Amino acid sequence: MRFMSFITTTVDAGPPPPELLEAMHRLADREIKAGRMIDDGMLAPIAAGARVSVRGGKLAVLDGPMVEAKEVVGGYAIFEFRNKEEAVASAVEFLQLHKDHMPGWEGVCEVREMITR
Questions:
Q1: pLDDT by residue (tens digit) across 93-115?
Q2: Enclosing domain of residue 7
Q3: What is the domain count for the chain?
Q4: DSSP symbols for 2-22
Q5: Which of 33, 48, 63, 86 could form a disulfide with 44 if both were Cys (CB 3.0 to 4.6 A apart)?
Q6: Dihedral of the alpha carbons of 70, 108, 72, 6, in degrees to the nearest 10
């Protein structure tokens, strides 16, 4: 089963400290070597992005930064797991790294099964 995990955090969370980056790289290397992690990535700040929307029948493009954003997606990972429980356990381990290496950080890791063709 393929799962996508994505991390949301507050806009002003700031960059991760080097210790957290190193811990995340070690975890990612382990998961890649085990054949579970397919892809991952950190996203650039919202100031560099754009939002395309349809509201009231009108298409609109808004360049970043999106000042009304309170939370943003900071990164994602795609995994191959046997079941949802493994996917959730992976998310718990990843957020534990944040708790250990970035005190005061708050965020969410959402785990979603991917529907593949």
A1: 999 999 999 998 999 999 999 99
A2: 2-113
A3: 1
A4: EEEEEEEEETT--PPPHHHHH
A5: 48
A6: -160
